[in-house]
Amino acid sequence: MKRKDHVKMHSYPGMVAVVGVFHEGKVNFMAAGWHAYLSTAPPMYGVAIGRERHTYDMVKKSNQFTINFLPFDDAGFIQYSGTVSGAEVDKTLTYDQPWRMEEDFPLLERAYLAYECRVHQIVPTGDHDWMIGNIEGCHYKEEKFLENGLPNFEDLNIPLYLGRSSYVSLNDEVEIKEVKDPLSFKKS
Q1: Strands (E), the chain
Q2: Spatial separation of the C-alpha atoms in residues 39 and 172, rounded to whole Å
Q3: Cα 105 vs. chain centroid, distance in angstroms?
Q4: This prediction's pTM
Q5: How far apart are CA 136 and CA 44, in angstroms?
Q6: What confidence tens digit (pLDDT) does each residue in 15-27 have?
Q7: Which residue, 74, 95, 115, 151, is the most exposed by fewest CB within 10 angstroms?
């Protein structure tokens, strides 16, 4: 492999979360490709948001946000919410995406999973800040998950972002392989 002078960003394909935020009577949603579940005790979730984003200021001022996961049929809204600024348009009025408020947390009605998060810490990470939130509430559609907690791909079609405004569908037609390594008892 030859060394290059520039960095090749390779974090896709991946799930995109839609961040929801409510502040001073306004609601905004923004797609975010860089996000992660960070802790189980206490439950925490993090999302990278650029400091120049309208959502960044709203989260910083409100000290809370939601993380919404939408099915493949809503890839259009995911793309729209990540490319149009809430400072310029009210996305709740310009796109037919039903939502509701749960206390001060905006939740997307078609989300199969959503977290209510209160900001625990904001960590600067270059051109983005990592917004780390304590998960205070979890909403999910039971039929979208199996008893063991894994996604039910017979009833769920997850969009994976490929980059360049392209998404691929992850559903029951994708091969799922369970790996049982004989050394899986060892911790790394």
Answers
A1: 14-15, 17-23, 26-32, 35-40, 43-50, 64-69, 99-102, 105-108, 113-125, 128-140, 158-163, 166-170
A2: 28
A3: 15
A4: 0.90
A5: 9
A6: 999 999 999 999 9
A7: 95
